[in-house]
Design a protein that fits this description.
259 residues; alpha/beta; Rossmann fold; six-stranded mixed β-sheet; four-stranded antiparallel β-sheet; 5 helices; globular
């Protein structure tokens, strides 16, 4: 007997959204199933970051429908199942804090009244180890490099042991050593069955993990399938990342660091 299909983890249909008076999403459909790793690709201003911020409620939709884990967004409350890594920022937002304190904040949604149990402390330590920051746990986040800040932000999300991990440009401005560490941490999460939605400018060391790529242009989905193949100069030896490219007849997609 066939099993009934499971509900998608993310089900975004006909989504529209604006920033100020400017429309940014123009009827976006995005479905992510359990265990999938999906990359959102596109040029500056294509709507990648707005799409993921809409999924977590930071940017309200002006139209369309959104469901998480089969629950309509306005009724969804189980945010402990979701981990979010924002675009590059300082780990503590300017507030004096140690690495461990910042990462522990990502575990609080799993606790009762904010009281850490043995399992919670173990989850925090494991997250620190995954990103190679366990030896810096007592250090101030203000003493960290940019790549180390990004590791801490990812550890904060991992500490909650999320079923869905959403990451907005996790590799932007990060040194190669940190990229490899973060790719290994993500590989471990995928191995544990996590569902992942990533905003990326280039695939880099994450390319082997990507199941599907969704390419946005001007707030619309123009590709949903295997990651686009490198072409032209991007296919040359030593060029280890893939940018999304427009059809030859279309206006070329600009490439930039962040949306």
């Amino acid at each position: 007997m066939n099993q009934p299909p499971t509900q998608p983890v993310i089900d975004l249909r006909g989504a529209t959204a604006s920033l100020g008076a400017r429309p940014v999403l123009r009827g976006v459909d995005l479905t992510v199933h359990s265990g999938e790793v999906v990359a959102l690709l596109g040029a500056n201003g294509s709507g990648k970051s707005t799409a993921v911020r809409s999924v977590i409620g930071q940017v309200p939709l002006t139209g369309g429908e959104l469901a998480l884990f089969g629950t309509e967004f306005r009724r969804f409350r189980d945010w402990a199942r979701v981990g979010y890594v924002p675009q590059r920022t300082t780990a503590a937002g300017g507030v004096p804090a140690t690495v461990r304190e910042v990462v522990t904040a990502g575990r609080l949604a799993r606790t009762k009244l904010g009281i850490l149990r043995k399992a919670d402390r173990a989850a925090v330590h494991r997250a620190l180890e995954l990103v190679g920051m366990a030896d810096r746990a007592k250090d101030s986040v203000n003493a960290l490099s940019g790549g180390q800040h990004q590791r801490v932000l990812i550890a904060r999300a991992l500490a909650g042991e999320p079923e869905l991990l959403i990451m907005d440009e996790p590799m932007a401005g990060v040194d190669l050593a940190s990229q490899e560490v973060l790719a290994a941490a993500l590989r471990e999460q995928v191995g544990r069955g996590a569902t992942v939605l990533l905003v990326l400018h280039e695939l880099g060391p994450l390319e082997p993990l990507i199941d599907r790529a969704v390419v946005l242009r001007d707030g619309c989905v123009v590709h949903d399938g295997p990651p686009p193949e490198a072409v032209g100069q991007h296919a040359l030896p030593g060029h280890d990342h893939v940018h999304p490219h427009a059809d030859q007849a279309a206006e070329p997609i600009r490439t930039g660091l962040l949306s």
